[in-house]
Amino acid sequence: SAATTSGARRTSPRTCTPATRPSSMSGPSTVTAVCAHTPGVAAAMSKLGAPYVYGGKGPDVFDCSGFTSWAWAQAGVSLSSSSRVQAGEGTPVSSSNLQPGDILYYGYPVSHVAMYIGNGQVIHASNPRTDVTIAPAMQAGGSAKPFRGAMRPG
User: Fold this and answer.
1) Is the pLDDT at 99 greater than 60, yes or no?
2) Quick check: is 37 catalytic?
3) How many CA atoms lie within 13 A of 85 on its CB side?
4) Of these residues, 16, 35, 37, 124, which one is catalytic?
5) Which of 16, 35, 37, 112 is catalytic?
6) Gap between the terminal Cα atoms of the chain
7) Disulfide check for 38: which of 9, 11, 82, 100 has CB 3.0–4.6 Å away?
């Protein structure tokens, strides 16, 4: 297991619990296999439905990199507020070894980031139409921003 800069440890295996989706959002009322006790993930999940604003760094409005940076900061881990820079921070991980809290990055060059929450899903600040939402991990960047890689903060 990897230590975070706050001294907290990420342990494995993780027991994941359902998270409730805000009533203002469409879709199922719960999202399965969210590891809300994983560093950074609980903070990220607490902002589900928060408004997207370009350049937003939280705690009330976010863009993609501001969101992941803010969420990990709540766990004592410092990340850049630039998606391109975030892609180079942390330890690279393959898509087959993703763990909740990992940062996925998208596009050539990198122009979007999201946080993996388990069960093939990410939470991210996508755009003003969807705000902070949950999406399939390999599709979160859309067709214009394909999945490019992942890293593990801490």
Assistant:
1) yes
2) no
3) 9
4) 124
5) 112
6) 11
7) 100
